[in-house]
Amino acid sequence: MNDILLDACKTGDIELYKNNINEKSILDFIEAKNNIILERQVEVDGYYVDGYCRSTNTVYEVYERYHKYQKERDDKRTLDIINTLQCEFIVIFDNDNVDYEGLKITKYV
To answer: How much is the CA Rg of the chain, to the nearest whole Å?
Structure first.
């Protein structure tokens, strides 16, 4: 986790946190908050997932703004990955959709 993001987490500075958000920083934050290790860009059934925690069998996907234009494709991809891994699948929305201490998520099981 970068120093700016770490400071934002410690102080609760929501704007500083939001302004430094990206896929890597979100996944770093999840690792630190949950004391887990996420493998990055793991191939599953022909798809690459942003983060995968083997110990909890959970996939973490960061959805940037462009995902709102490919909902059907993302839904199929999500179901294919869940069916292959029999995993929990968590979608985290970045930038304007992020709240400190509670990244806006959608959870699929």
So the answer is: 14
What kind of architecture, by CATH, is found in domain 3-108? 3-Layer(aba) Sandwich (3.40)
Determine how many CB atoms are found less than 10 A away from the CB of residue 46. Answer: 9
Per-residue confidence band for 18, with pLDDT thresholds at 50, 70 and 90: low
Q: Which residues contact 42 (CB under 8 A, 6 or more apart)?
A: 48, 49, 51, 52
With a CB cutoff of 8 Å and minimum separation 6, the contacts of 52 are 38, 39, 42, 44, 58, 59, 60
Q: CA 71, 18, 39, 62: dihedral to nearest 10 degrees?
A: 0
In angstroms, how far is the first alpha carbon of the chain from the final one? 28
Looking at residue 13, its pLDDT comes to 52
Instruction: Encode pLDDT of 69-89 as tens digits.
Output: 677 888 898 999 999 999 999
> Token pair for residue 27?
């996944």
Residue with the two structure tokens 């703004």? 65
pTM of the predicted protein model: 0.71
